[in-house]
Amino acid sequence: MCDPFGSLIVEVYTDVKTLLSHPACTISDSEVREKYDYLMDKADKLKASRQDIEECFPKGVRSNVCQYWINKAKEIENEAKEFEDKFEKEDKRSCKWVYRYPSYKLGEDMGKKANQIEEFLLEGGNLLVGSSAGQPLKPIGRRINRPLDSERMPSVHKDTEEKLISFLRDEKVRRIGVWGITGSGKSMMMENLRKNEDVIILFESVLFVAFSGEWGLKELQDDIMGQLKVNVESGADMPEKARRISEMLQRKQCLILIDNFEEKVDLDKILGIQDNNKRCKVVFASRSRGVCFSMQADDVVHVDRLSPDDAWIMFKELVGEVIDRFPRIREEARLVVKECDGLPLLIDMVARNLRNVTDLTYWVTQKKQLQGWESPLQGMGEALQTLEFCYDSLNDPSKKCFLYCALYPEECQIHVDHLLECWISEGFIHEKSFREARDMGNSILHDLISGSFLARLDNKKYVKMTKLLRKMALKISSENNNFELVVKPEYSIQNQEWHKARRISLMDSPLRELPVSPDCAELLTLFLQRNKNLVDIPKNFFRSMRSLRVLDLYGTGIASLPPSLSQLVSLKALYLNSCFNLVDIPSGVKRLKLLEVLDIQKTKLNLHQIGSLIWLKCLRISFSSLIRVNHMKGRVSYFSSLEEFSVFIDSPQQWTNNVVDQVIQEVAMLEKLTSLEFCFPDLFYLQLFINKRRPWNNNSNFTFHFSVGVQDSSHSLLRDSVDYPIRNSLNLVDTEGADKVFATDKAFAEVLKETDIFGLIKQKKVPSLSSFGIDSMEKMLVCLIEECEDMEVIISNNGRREAVLKFLKDLYIKNLPKLRTIWEGHVLHGSLVQLTTLVISKCPKLKNVFSHGLIQQLHELKHLKVEACHQIEGIIARSESEGLETNALQSLRNLEMIDLPKLRSIVDDSFKWPSLQKIKISVCYKLKRLPFSSENAAKLRRIEGQQSWWEALEWEDQAYKQRLQSHFHPQPPPISFSSPTNM
After folding, report:
1. Which tens digits make up the pLDDT trace of 576-609?
2. Cα(42)–Cα(790) distance, integer angstroms
3. Average pLDDT, the chain
4. Which 3 state secondary structure label does DSSP give 796?
5. Which of 682, 703, 694 is nearest to 779 (CA)?
6. Would the pTM of this model clear 0.85, i.e. be above it?
7. Strand-strand pairing, 874-876 and 848-850
8. What is the DSSP string of 291-339?
9. Distance between CA atoms of 561 and 44, rounded to whole angstroms?
10. Could you read off the pLDDT of 166-223 as tens digits, one per residue?
11. Count of CB atoms within 10 A of residue 184's CB?
């Protein structure tokens, strides 16, 4: 429970009593000023206390008495403001030590007002004890607003603060959004920023506004005006106030920090900041990334949860030395802090509840309550309530989709495609086509991620729900009879729970057997995936599940499905993938008339066994399932409703020409197909498909993921890791003569023109990427070139006059033994202008990364990594560095140079690095000087490398070295890389 009043009330009472017990018949101006200062101090404390009350008691749980107190507090604050105006007028005409009745009267009135505030603060303190009815009111929680010095600040917050400072230094950035899940420490970050030394140097004044949920634009504007000391006529409207604020902001270098926006607020209407005002910057915090961008943020910074180490440090500091004194309490403390999920707000609440508690049983009880959700411990329940207010802001479909995620186990990586298909099958999303429904699901997923309800992982095909949000979702679903969830990963459930639940998850459990015939007529979803010990399903198990819509048996040990499967007449999604022993499915499967999604990849089922399900919309199957069947009995073309079709290649050795030929021809006949994932044995079969059908010509929504040769895991990982709008990918592995075919055949060129991600792997006799027809790569966003043993050049300009690869974002060049240059010939203006990531690895003949002309194009390059290129001497050859624009790499943020034994210099010292934040130098022992200084790399905040290399560096500016010392992080040398002795 938050209590901002204890020591404050005692202080106010003592001070006011002392002041008012010595009335004077005369009063000097100095005494009036003392009373004025005293009153202003109390008024500031009243405002702070009101804001605490508003935060502790959000509108949804606020009593009438509480609301009255808040309204009255605002009135008193306005009255104190009037005293401020009177004092300023009186002060201009007063003389020291001369009695004047107006001054005496003003001083007397200010004393009375201070006394009133003191009494009023006592009333506010009582609100935290109970309501007017005598019932206790639990505050929703308080923010962690205590600013921390840099030594005590969690590492993730240090990194976030450094990003914020770098944006504040950037002249092009005027608005910055700070976003993250409730309780992640956004308010703490804002307070730290307010006290930051760099901020104090950069700005003449810093304003901080804690935006209240009760406020409108007027209150926000008035608060800013008050801090700027802008005086306007009492009847001034909002545009006039905005004009006056804008005039004031034009005069000084000002930073405005605004905390806790829940929805879009028009800052232009409040602040009146014009485009030509370069002196003012605004940083605002919100739970939602979308809100930040809707408020025209130039850039956003995500406040992530604390690492396990940082969370433990914070928890220990708050709990006290009891953790170090008692080993058993330390063990329990480790488990408790794990449940806090890295959220500073929850860590703070829970730790203070356990501060210096030596009763081990109390620790154990609190841990169990924290792990559960039926009766959460003090602090956690308050945090859950806070999150519920955020949940209430979602629309109805988004609420259902969010609650559904709680079916997955804690810390589970949730596959996006599986999640969207479950949402669709449950009926949360209603669209005409499966593709439209998937697109709508992606839109909801985007909103949940932007609102911090889910987190996207590095592999973009997966999302994750935090522990605390999962607890909240389980709590909400338990109170909603229409969304009853039963989630028990460690043991089987009781009969009554089968009867009651609408959704059951028994994932990842030691489950060996299921009930014979559970009574669960209301069940909609059943998750049994990854139960390897489950080898048999009772024959009547599904008999009463006529409402079931989603059934997931992925990764179970079953060999067959029972006859009662035919009773699942409402089933829409069935997952049997990776059931390696599954050989049989009952013929009654044909009764599943509503089934839309079926995944039988990595099973022993064949196409004939599911041939009756011609209404399927999404089918994922292994190639081995296609060759186990007589194609007169099971044909792909029978599935005429298919919109999405994916074929997994178990092994290239399974390919038989007659089967591949027939399957490709039948796939080409699927009229409704909008998505195809397929691996073609060679270019002949790809040509066979595109000659039969070119769906991208008639359907702009058609997507493909084609591999030719074999399916390559590095290409699919790359596809899943990028955060670009990717629709189509093409991967060529060990295909002879591919460059000539794509450069000369129009049909192949069409495929390349529609490709977003292009992979070239193990290509022989291919001299360059350009030889595939550079004109056909205009939509390409990502390119991977790996193990092409004859490639000497990436891009070769043979007389071209137009820019190439204008939209390429990421370029990965790996293991090209003969590569000598990236670009050969004249570099065309506008080429590679959007390249943001360049990775070069194991190219032993490459001596320099860039030519003079190429580096001039890379204004958007943010990440550069050069690794294990043993002839590299520098980023650019010395002979080409003359006349080079010093800010050519103006956007570069991260630079990595690893295992470059001949690297002596990066570039000359005149080069500028305005955006550089992090460098990693590893096993580059001949690099003795860094081209960085306080003038050309002001944002550099992290340096990684070997300690011996760091100590051997030569510096012209020793002061700059000392400044960077705190940013150096020593790293051990990679074992497999070269050492100084073998150079």
Report:
1. 999 999 999 999 999 999 999 999 999 999 898 9
2. 78
3. 82
4. strand
5. 703
6. no
7. parallel
8. HHHHTT-SEEEE-PPPPHHHHHHHHHHHH-THHHH-HHHHHHHHHHHHH
9. 71
10. 888 888 888 999 988 877 888 888 888 888 888 888 888 888 887 765 567 788 888 8
11. 29
